[in-house]
Every structure is written in C-alpha cells, then in structure tokens.
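One chain shown below:
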Amino acid sequence: MRSRREGPDVTAGAPLRLSAATARRLAGQVEPAPFDPRELTTGIVHLGIGAFHRAHQAVYTQDAMAATGDSGWGVLGATQRSRGVVDQLVPQQGLYGVLTKDAAASSLRLVGVHTGVAFPRDETPRVVAAIAAPSTHVVTLTVTEKGYRLAPGGGPDLTDPDLAADLATLGSGDDAPARTPLGLLFLGLAARHRGDAGPLSVVSCDNLASNGHVLAALVARTLDAGGRSDLASWVATSVTFPATMVDRIVPATTPEHRAEALALLGLRDEGLVVAEPFGQWVLEDAFAGPRPVWERAGATFTGDVEPFERAKLRILNAVHSTLAYRGALRGLTTIADAVADPDLLAASRALVDQDVLPTLEAVPGVDLAQYRDSVLARMANPATGHTTVQVASDGSVKLPQRLLGTVRDRLAVGAVPHAASATIAAWIAYVRSVTAGSLVLDGRVVTLDDPRADVLAAAAAGPVDGLADRFLRLSDVFGDLGGSRELRDAVAAGLRDLGVR
C-alpha cells in the first residue's frame, strides 16, 4: 500500500492533475492547503482573478483562515477577458500551487480558498448573486489600471463603449453579460441593494494612488451619470472603499516553472503561479462589516495608507519602470539583467535619492533608504523573471501614477527633476524605437502595448527636434506639466543623453 507521504502515482503518459482527490497523496516537501475549498463558505468575491491575486490576497486569506479556523472567507473569483483561469482552476476544484523562488531556493505551497471561478461573459448572474448574498461581506479587485476606465481628470470614461453598455444594462434591468469589472460591480451592488443584504466593503488592490478613494468617487460619479442616484445614495451609506497598498513580484509562469513544480508536487498543476518571497499588504481600517483577520497573516491595518502607498509607487514602481525602459533600450531582457548593469543601477539610485526621497513624508516603521536598497535587491532576484517589455507595457497609464507626482512635487519647490526627467526620456525613446520597429529583444521585434498606442506613435514620429514637446503636450498623460519649460528642457537633455536620433 502506498503511504500519503510517498506521493501520487504518475503513469507513463501524462502525470495526474492536481485536484482535491489527488492532493490527498502529496509528498512531504509541499505545504498542503489547510482547507478543502469545496467545504468553504463564500465570503469574498474577487474581480480579476489573475496571477497576482492568487499569489497575494488569496495567500493572505488562506493564512488568516488557518490562523483562526474560520472557513467563512472562501473566494468566488471572476475573470476578465477570457475563461483561461476557469479552465485552469475549475477541474482542480480551485486548488493551485504558489512556487516561491529566490536566487538560492524554491518552495511550493498549495492554496485552496476559491470556492469557484466564473467567466462573466457566460456567468454574470452567478457573480452578481454572490455579491448580493448576505454571506458575502467583501469584494476585492485586481483589474489593473486600465480596468477602471478612467478618463483624463479621474472621472469615468463615459465614452468607453463597454462601460456605456454596462450602464445601459444597469438602467434597463437587462441580464446581458457585464463587459467591464465596474459594470459587474454595479450590477452586484444594485442586486445587493434590492435584496437589502447589508453593508459591503469594496477593496481595490490595484496600483492606483488612493485606490479606494478613487474607486469610491468613480462609482458615485458613474452611477450619477447613469441616472442611478438611488443606488448611489445607498452606496454612500452602506458601502466602504478601504484604500490599500499591495506589493509582491509575481512573474509570468513559464514551462520551466511548471516542470519544477511537477517535480516537487508529482502532479500537473495548470493553475500554478510564481512569486518572490517578499509580500506586503497595507489596508485602511475602514471596513463596513466583517472581514478576514488578515493581520494574523502579516497584513498591516492603518488609519492612513497614503505614506506607505506613495513610498511604494514612487520608489518601487518608478524604479521598475526606469529599469524596464532603459534596460530594453540596452537590449536587456529581464529586470534582473537591467539592475545588474552598473549604469542603470546608478540611474535608479539617482532617481530615488535625488528626486523621490525629498518628496516623501516619513512612513511609520519604515526606513526609506533601507526600503530603497531592499527594492533593488528584490529586483536583482533572477528567479522572478520579470521582463523589461512586460514592465514597460501601458506606460501612458503607469507613469502618471508612478513618476509624475514626483515631478510635480519637485517643480513645485523650484527643483528641476533631472533624474525623473531621464526616466520620461527613456519612455519616449522606448516608444519611438518600438513604433519604428527597430527594437528587437531575443530575436523578436517588440510591439507597443499601450491603450494610447496610436496617439503615442503619432507623437513619436517625425524629427527629434520637438520630440519632447510632442509628448509633453499629451495632456491626458502629462496634464499641465507640458507647460513647464524646465521639464521640457530636462527631458530633451535626457533624450540627447540616450542618443535618440
């Protein structure tokens, strides 16, 4: 008879797939999930069940439940653009592995907090019903910056056809599938209001400054614009939007990662995600009702997330973008390659020391210089595999969040942000090179992945003279910063330093 510690049988053909049944025969080197997800009660609905959520909030939630034995915080996850995660996790009863890697070692643990995964195009009513259920107390989101459909100035982009369609559905009572995460949330809120299911906490976990407050204003303004002032009034009194700051590097899962996990697990895991050892979650203590005791899993609750968030956005995320653009321009494939380049390491340190740190207030319990060093050390971890092109995507959305606040603060005190301007120049040079078809990495021509790709391509075309001006005049990216002669001169100097022709 085979003991549980000997692991599962693997036939001469394809190995057995991870599931609730096969997981009972795990080898001892894998940390099992403490719960069978089929026995959990759904207390959380998560919108945007990608790799980051599965390696971050889901792990915190499992650890919080394990610390207390409370099985009432199972998660129903909703996908966004495809049913890929449904196909990965549903046959595995929601179980998947998190492969944690650094330069020296790997470990694997199983996570089993998802009571289901739904594809809204086919299952919008299922997600709406879960949000409206009295047993659900929290909705969390990881839908990326693009998922919020923000217009210039921060309000809802009511010209977005998908958001407009969702608003029409909300007004008509039609049961058409939700096209956007916000539309799915609105339908759920409306159903919860009709059913008098009690208060709800909606928790954004995306890299947006003041993400909870932005989402609260976005919901209110969108509902008002859609003629649903009744629902907006209920949301104002019954729904809270705690701000958060999240941090964990979660690279794309590769065939090599899957082979490593198979060797550890002895089972084929189609839902595998990969992460660095580090993780951080800071939450505003502003919940409308019950919540998991995430602090038992290492999360920080505070009355003000902004100092933590600003430090992370302006140090980690801005350095990430700096290394991505400058690294790609040097032909470097990964962020680890980029930070190993002495010139790019010096540029990253200069950005933080010269421009970012002077704009930051003290963060409780955090030494910002040590935080800078830890960020650079984490980015040097080759096991994360973050590519420069991956991080370089969506620059027109990311840079306003990560870098332009630093630029504004420096200009406001009469300082020219030379290091930050060099990062803007690197972005412009990257866009120019990519749209010209001249950037090749690993034998592949890089294409521009950005929601404003056409506008950026037009600004990048033409002579180098005036290139900085053409980009800085993009008011939906730079706002009023285009009027700063000091910034224009500094960005133009950065382009010359990069040899842009």
In short: The domain at 38-302 is CATH 3.40.50.720 (Rossmann fold). The radius of gyration is 23 Å.
